[in-house]
Design brief:
Layout (H helix, E strand, L loop, with lengths): L19 E2 L15 E2 L14 H5 L2 H6 L6 E2 L15 H10 L10 E2 L1 E2 L2 E2 L1 E5 L2 H5 L3 H10 L1 H7 L2 H7 L6 E7 L6 E7 L1
Amino acid sequence: MNQQPPHFKYHPKAYELEVIEKIDIECECCGQARGWIYSGGIYTKDDVDNVCPWCIADGSAHRKWDASFNYDIEGVSTQGNPEIDGAAPDAVDEVLRRTPGYVSWQGSLWKTHCNDVCEFHGDISEKDLSSLTQESEQLFRQDHEWIFRDYNTLQNLVKDYTPKGHLSIYKFVCRHCGIVRLHADMD
């Protein structure tokens, strides 16, 4: 009997975005086949392929293999003792060790705002990109000035942008104020 899989507050669309797939494979951590398996990257010295979302959510996979599921958090050094600039230590710990990652070209980077890690919402749509608030656009320009050397304006970028293309733009939403933060990545 399959039970309802755990919800991830920083990755609320993990199942919709298929980073956790409906597959009945045995989890290498708990030894159970619960009907769901994580399909993203696992940062560990061990060779691990199949981890269920329960073992990610409760920290079992992290404890067993000293595993992390995310590469980097904005404003935080993930080497050794984290130097927390962009998010509270408990939020950093939850995202690095108890939240499924997302697939990106160069390694996942989680955006922060309001002293917390933002929720990941996948590739931004063309519609959402063209309707950014002035504050979101300003933060995007500040963080990714290299994009605007080629595109000059957001409107020019929107004309050439296709979700899941060679230029990927990932949407993050602040859990407190709702501002949209973006992270861009290229193949």
